Amino acid sequence: MAFYSTNEFKGGLKIMLDGEPCNILENEYVKPGKGQAFNRVKIRKLISGKVLEKTFRSGETVEGADVMDTELAYLYTDGEFYHFMNNDTFEQIAADEKAVGENVKWLKENDVCTITLWNGAPITVSPPNFVELEITETDPGLKGDTAGTGGKPATLSTGAVVRVPLFVQTGEVIRVDTRSGEYVSRAQK
Amino acid sequence: MQTPSDAWQPTAAFDNLRQRAALLRTIREFFYQRDVLEVDTPLLSHGTVTDVHLAAFSSAFSHSETGKPETLYLQTSPEYAMKRLLCAGSDSIYQICKAFRHEGAGRFHNPEFTMLEWYRTGFDHHALMAEMDELLQATLNSAPAEKVSYQDVFIRQLSVDPLTAPVEVLQQKAVECGLDMNAGLPDDADTLLQLLFSLYIEPLIGADSPCFVYGFPASQAALAKVNADDPRTADRFEVYFKGVELANGFYELANASEQRQRFLADNAKREEIGLPPLPVDEHFLSALASGLPDCAGVALGIDRLLMLKLGASHIQDVITFPVSRA
């Protein structure tokens, strides 16, 4: 595996830290006129998702992490693994529950997700920013109440629960922002 | 980032380059009014700095008078040559020149940068700080500067006395501040003090007006006199404004044998950490031995001064071609 010196640090570089692959978010070179040089580095740990700030002595080297993102379509789950396919090569990859994590509630068949691979194995699964899902259950809204003050909870086909306006009904398909978990609109027919 | 196809283009806007020219003119006028002589000293030198944390570029000279190949160093500041002029009787002088440091580029760093350095005979560091404050007001339109001792600013910001605190206390303070070092905390007081200062004090001082910090620990004296009243401190100051380290100044050490001791101590430390020892500048030491007039001097980064003037966030906005495009 390649080693990187702090001179090569920049946003997007993947390195190993405490045995975990990490993505460098920001790198600032700090050099007092009289004194040792440092790099202040903001890092996201790719498995735990934790963001932390580390200080390196300039010139230190760290091991690179073999990490890449790939776009794959979600196929199905067998209860233990989640199966994805590359739409160009038809190659399939299975991600475990840990890699999918909370995002399981946004996985819809055929949606193209971003899978992060470390040494060829999936470590995270990111759904598209927007998904369209059917409401399987929500209280009937009161007729004429369109003010939509607080909205109401609605359960979606994947099990996700989001707040929707009162006029939206069971059986309708809605568009949700997966980053915030918020209702955006009714889906375009 | 621009695509490689326009990498031939300057990174600074022409309006910024016009402002740069205007700033240089203001500085020259400032010194002209005060009867300080502009000088020009070599960028290439046989001697270089021994400072453990300064790295010089070196070049091969194959046309020396002796016929033997020589190493010439690009200067990291014009300090030694300017002090030789002072020893030779120049009286107060200033210089605007390029300085070179073999280190990484960053928001506030380019390996080749423009420096203003000036020396005032008959001034101590307090008198020089007052003059520098005037220069900052003239160039940046800044409010009158604040002045605080290194000891006081540590006590004020971090509740720790930098002159007496043992290493363990400084380490504990670093942990409290949230410092997470990749290879563990340093175990020497100076490195810890520098880290605490750079990361947890510098960003908080000089927000509204420039802040002069003076009385650095004697262990970080560089080329400053040790303070006559408190030998734990040196007559060295730095200037901070809006998160930028702008200048470093000294009430200049005039004692040649003490200066030689400091160079030798630097070289000993270099060997200790696996760096090659460097040739000390014998011309400079001979000049000091002949007598340096009582004086104070300061070096200021012109690129950073312009960044402050323009509110630029990256040094490449104020220089034509940063090292990656040079």
From TrEMBL, chain A:
Gene name? efp
Entry keyword Cytoplasm:
yes
Listed InterPro entries: Elong-fact-P_C (IPR015365), NA-bd_OB-fold (IPR012340), Rib_uL2_dom2 (IPR014722), Transl_elong_fac_P/YeiP (IPR020599), Transl_elong_KOW-like (IPR013185), Transl_elong_P/YeiP_cen (IPR001059), Transl_elong_P/YeiP_CS (IPR013852), Transl_elongation_fac_P (IPR011768)
Its GO biological process annotations read: peptide biosynthetic process
* Pathway, per record: Protein biosynthesis; polypeptide chain elongation
PTMs?
May be beta-lysylated on the epsilon-amino group of Lys-34 by the combined action of EpmA and EpmB, and then hydroxylated on the C5 position of the same residue by EpmC (if this protein is present). Lysylation is critical for the stimulatory effect of EF-P on peptide-bond formation. The lysylation moiety may extend toward the peptidyltransferase center and stabilize the terminal 3-CCA end of the tRNA. Hydroxylation of the C5 position on Lys-34 may allow additional potential stabilizing hydrogen-bond interactions with the P-tRNA.
Name the family: Belongs to the elongation factor P family.
What are the leading ranks of the lineage?
Bacteria, Pseudomonadati, Pseudomonadota, Gammaproteobacteria, Alteromonadales
| Annotated source species | Alteromonas confluentis
Q: What is this protein called?
A: Elongation factor P
Q: Which UniProt keywords apply?
A: Cytoplasm, Elongation factor, Hydroxylation, Protein biosynthesis
Functional summary from the UniProt entry? Involved in peptide bond synthesis. Alleviates ribosome stalling that occurs when 3 or more consecutive Pro residues or the sequence PPG is present in a protein, possibly by augmenting the peptidyl transferase activity of the ribosome. Modification of Lys-34 is required for alleviation.
The organism's place on the tree of life at top rank: Bacteria
